[in-house]
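User: Can you recover a sequence for this backbone? Please restate the input before giving your answer.

Assistant: Of course. Working from this structure:
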């Protein structure tokens, strides 16, 4: 089904942006896993709008309510279901027939014969990333017990770049520091310029996009499969499920196009009794399988589709050309709040693939 992901650790995301609730059902959790709800809440708060110039004025508490599969602080081994309330909605801003450019009104209308919920984007909304983040926070705790951590930062917003990760050497300390930041950056020297780009776009009724770099540390060699079931394939399918994601690259990414083989190949060496690589251009993945180096990938997020500038569209009911000025409350840049979403997706994918191998 379209909103279900995973082979062993599976998630089933449900709800609409302006429905009473959204949530997720997680299957495959072993029994007896202790969940630190404070850490889960902290993970979710990184996604939640916090009053910054770059975040929506919609304020949802996003306090997870677990209704099954959890007892006395530990998982029971049965399906874990979590609900989030939608308490701050303004559905009057959304009308049947309004076709917002860059949104899924037209495609969703065709796919579901006109019955899709149009309010706030319905099931197509970025609001549905909140239960994804919950599932990722659960997965992250299980991975941490195995010595596996994710580190994620904003690599650019509107052409303003942060320092990239060292593809070979990324530390848990970096991961911990980035998790405490509302604007997750390796170098805060670019923070003011990024914020100014967002404010300038918002003042003009427009929006900006950017790119997020994520690294997963501590994954052992040998996880994954070739061809259609490789780590790149499985991770890409989940990352591209996040609204507004338009491009994804691993390791050196687009730079491979200008390299020679002698530059692109990662030479192997011994570190004690362990085989390792001197470089990590391939982002920790060869043949769809982990090689023990950090898994590093970059995700491009398009500019927020909801902008207040006049746009040409066609009314889905009247079939007449119209000029539209989008109403509602929207982020002029969704990149900062997408950081924990991308990190959550990475944790879900890696845990699912490790559980398949019995790790």
């Amino acid at each position: 089904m379209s909103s279900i992901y995973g082979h062993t650790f599976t998630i089933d995301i449900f709800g609409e942006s302006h429905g009473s609730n959204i949530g997720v059902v997680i299957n495959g959790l072993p029994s007896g896993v202790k969940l630190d709800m404070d850490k889960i809440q902290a993970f979710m708060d990184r996604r939640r709008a916090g009053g910054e110039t770059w975040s929506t004025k919609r304020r949802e508490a996003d306090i997870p309510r677990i209704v099954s599969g959890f007892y006395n602080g530990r998982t029971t081994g049965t399906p874990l279901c979590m609900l989030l309330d939608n308490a701050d909605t303004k559905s009057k801003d959304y009308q049947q027939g309004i076709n917002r450019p860059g949104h899924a009104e037209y495609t969703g209308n065709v796919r579901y014969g006109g019955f899709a919920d149009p309010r706030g984007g319905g099931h197509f909304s970025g609001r549905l990333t909140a239960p994804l983040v919950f599932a990722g926070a659960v997965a992250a705790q299980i991975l941490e017990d195995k010595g596996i951590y994710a580190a994620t930062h904003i690599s650019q917003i509107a052409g303003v770049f942060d320092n990239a990760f060292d593809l070979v050497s990324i530390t848990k300390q970096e991961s911990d520091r980035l998790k405490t930041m509302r604007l997750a950056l390796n170098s805060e020297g670019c923070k003011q310029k990024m914020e100014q780009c967002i404010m300038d776009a918002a003042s003009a009724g427009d929006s900006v996009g950017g790119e997020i770099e994520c690294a997963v540390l501590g994954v052992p060699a040998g996880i994954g499969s070739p061809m259609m079931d490789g780590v790149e394939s499985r991770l890409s399918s989940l990352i591209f499920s996040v609204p507004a994601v338009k491009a994804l690259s691993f390791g050196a990414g687009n730079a491979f196009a200008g390299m020679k083989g002698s530059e692109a190949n990662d030479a192997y060496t011994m570190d004690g009794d362990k085989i390792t690589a001197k470089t990590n251009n391939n982002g920790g993945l060869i043949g769809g399988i982990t090689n023990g180096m950090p898994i590093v990938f970059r995700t491009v997020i398009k500019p927020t589709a909801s902008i207040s500038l006049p746009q040409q569209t066609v009314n889905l009911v009247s079939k007449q050309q119209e000029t539209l000025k989008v109403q509602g409350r929207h982020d002029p840049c969704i990149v900062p709040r997408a950081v924990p979403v991308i990190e959550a997706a990475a944790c879900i994918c890696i845990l699912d693939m490790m559980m398949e191998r019995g790790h």
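That completes the design. The chain has eight helices and 18 strands.
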